[in-house]
Amino acid sequence: xxxxxxxxxxxxxxxxxxxxxxxxxxxxxxxxxxxxxxxxxxxxxxxxxxxxxxxxxxxxxxxxxxxxxxxxxxxxxxxxxxxxxxxxxxxxxxxxxxxxxxxxxxxxxxxxxxxxxxxxxxxxxxxxxxxxxxxxxxxxxxxxxxxxxxxxxxxxxxxxxxxxxxxxxxxxxxxxxxxxxxxxxxxxxxxxxxxxxxxxxxxxxxxxxxxxxxxxxxxxxxxxxxxxxxxxxxxxxxxxxxxxxxxxxxxxxxxxxxxxxxxxxxxxxxxxxxxxxxxxxxxxxxxxxxxxxxxxxxxxxxxxxxxxxxxxxxxxxxxxxxxxxxxxxxxxxxxxxxxxxxxxxxxxxxxxxxxxxxxxxxxxxxxxxxxxxxxxxxxxxxxxxxxxxxxxxxxxxxxxxxxxxxxxxxxxxxxxxxxxxxxxxxxxxxxxxxxxxxxxxxxxxxxxxxxxxxx
Length: 455
Hints:
By secondary structure, the chain is mainly alpha-helical. The chain has helices spanning 23-26, 45-87, 91-98, 112-124, 136-145, 154-173, 179-204, 233-237, 243-257, 267-286, 298-306, 328-340, 350-366, 389-392, 428-434, 448-454, and strands at 209-212, 224-227, 308-311, 344-347. The protein is built from 16 helices and 4 strands. The strands form 2 sheets. Strands 1-2 form a two-stranded antiparallel sheet. A two-stranded antiparallel sheet has the order 3-4. Helix 10 packs parallel to helix 12. The N and C termini lie far apart (138 Å).
């Protein structure tokens, strides 16, 4: 039995505006998947009564089934708990064994088995030639026969996982060793992207185009483009350029922009990147622009003061200033963790703050942590003078406060009041003395003097 696919989209009349609300209406010549239609039948009174009775019976059966299913799940949970205690397995592990669904996914996290096989492969194939290397089956057999790999400790498992993840990251984002390998990789990626955008256009009607070009004159990658639904016509109709001319200009711009190449990565530049990422993350989480990072007194000056914590620091790297990390592999691992967000700043909860303060108290009592205390005031225990009234009275004036010298119970030597410093003020007379003498002009000039001079 075949499913007939026909075009059931209503067409508009020549004088009417065409319907463009859906992908099917905009493509009347394309085959359309028919929609499901239900035919409503007329029923007699007897059929309606029978249908209502059947509906009530089905509802009661559904409720009874739901209750029994709930009882079954309760019984199952009790049995899982009993099995987990009996065989010393976790409840999640037993539930996974009971389910029949596949545990494999397209993107899987590193497993202990994969980490062990990877470590063994590096061990046996490190100094072997291309034809002398062991196959995957042989390496797996060596892992099964190796007694030292049967029960690794937590630290060993963590190190194995980190090495495997670094290897996967290198395979995914590493640089090809030759231009030929880079060209083959680009060719395959362009083919996959072209297929994806064309299939996307068929499914959703999305129109897209993408251009690929090299960024250095020594690269052997061939510039190309991929489009869907004739999107490349945008270049010639709007930009008034031929696609090849546009691609040539794009290639020229890319090679000129990166003519000098990207800054060479070395230990110094990666240290600077790590320092910048740590400080920027701290300033973002605190919303303070001028805050600085403290690595030596991190627990006191950062965690205790600002109630934030840097989590996800790689376990294989000692927590310290990035400028003190001496190997490129470690600094690259730290920078990658900071970039992808595995190592980031978070705000502590009240429970975490209390646990951190308790931890600091234990370290301080054991002498592992030395906290520098502030120096006490020189006038501690003495009655302060009138000049220090602002230290005694609360904000807003004298209401609600009590001066220490007005108390009858206060005893102690009275300090003499501070003398007010006389500030030199320049009066108008002193200012006038420093200016050269001037002659004041008359406000009004009469004509009598002119008439006298003429006579």
